[in-house]
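Aim 2, interim progress: modelling of the pyridoxal-5'-phosphate-bound target.
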Amino acid sequence: MRDVAGAWRRTADGAGLLSPDGAVASTIFAEMTALAARTGAINLGQGFPDEDGPSEVLDAAREAIAGGANQYAPGIGIAPLREAIADHQSRFYGIALDPDTEVVVTTGATEALASALLALVDGPEDEVVVFEPYYDSYAACVALSGATLRTVPLRAPDFQPDLDVLADVVNERTRVILVNNPHNPTGAVFDRAVLEEVVRLAHARDAIVVTDEVYEHLTFDGPHVPVASLPGARERTLTISSGGKTFRTTGWKIGWITGPAELLTAVVTVKQFLTYTSGSPFQPAIAAGLRLPDAFFDGIAQDMRRKRDVLGAGLRAAGFEVFEPRGSYFTVADAAPLGATDAQAFCRGELVERAGVVAIPITAFVTPGRRSEYATLVRFAACKRVEVLEEAAARLASLSG
Ligand SMILES: *Cc1c(COP(=O)(O)O)cnc(C)c1O
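Predicted structure of the complex, ligand included:
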């Protein structure tokens, strides 16, 4: 039989995947969702909304299906969606894009990310720099691409990177600096100085910036600043976003990637052999969403901010130390004041048994060697109905008693 020792494999419990070096495991998300289902706990683990998005968007998908948009769309996406994406970047950020050469529709931000990494990096001598903790697919995709992952830690309370460390980690082998802003899991929105330093280093080392901005419309202290809008950034930045978080359609998997035409050509070369094309009837629907009036976009940011506040108040009252997020679906809290020494044990034990709430330990988002530095931090998702968050807050109060 073929030796598969170096292959990706299932974890012992069958719930997740392990990379060949055992560094990447996704068990905790499946485990926690199953735990919530089994115990009736409120699931603040996985980041998906529990309410539908705008009816204009949902209706447009139904109409598209009824109208026959049910076969393969063009590989780079239908023209009306590419035009809506280009208009969106111009309307919100003043970034002008050619919808035919500088915009590609993908199967979620996830595929955009995978295609970009597979297109841009080659082997172990190529390095990808990411901030840590990181969205779980980053380390997995870097591992699949065969490149080397280098991380720059983000630390509580504000989770901004140390710029000296960043300048030290980025070196002549760096091919990609991968930025996620607003940031999952920490809820950080990076200071302009951080983004400017990323751009400066990318120039100095001839690296490409890949930026994941899926929470672009969920910022709490003012409008989002895309990396590509900074001076000198545009020609070496690939910007990724998605309709999932903005329009509460995480199950539709319509994402996009924008940037210089020659970089996108490389991305499309890979993308065509991953999924080839994505959800035909969802594409016109997301186009309709991107053209919604400003009031919609202001409304979702305000709604998310209110939810953050309800969740944060509940966590504080329960005795957690809360690191107030400036964007995204998430809030990170420290369980150490409650006596926890290991957030993984805390999430599997006390949190679910005593409070009936499920959340994810931050150790799920860091490299094995750094787990001890984040040992007592927990990520809670705030993208749930206010009644659900209030019920979670009431339950969490039992932890302080
Ligand atoms: C949810 C999420 C994604 C995945 O987006 P899809 O469009 O569902 O693929 C990518 N990046 C971050 C940071 C996310 O939180």
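Residues 108-110, 135, 180, 184, 212, 214, 242, 244-245, 250, 253, 255 surround pyridoxal-5'-phosphate (CB under 6 Å). The radius of gyration is 21 Å.
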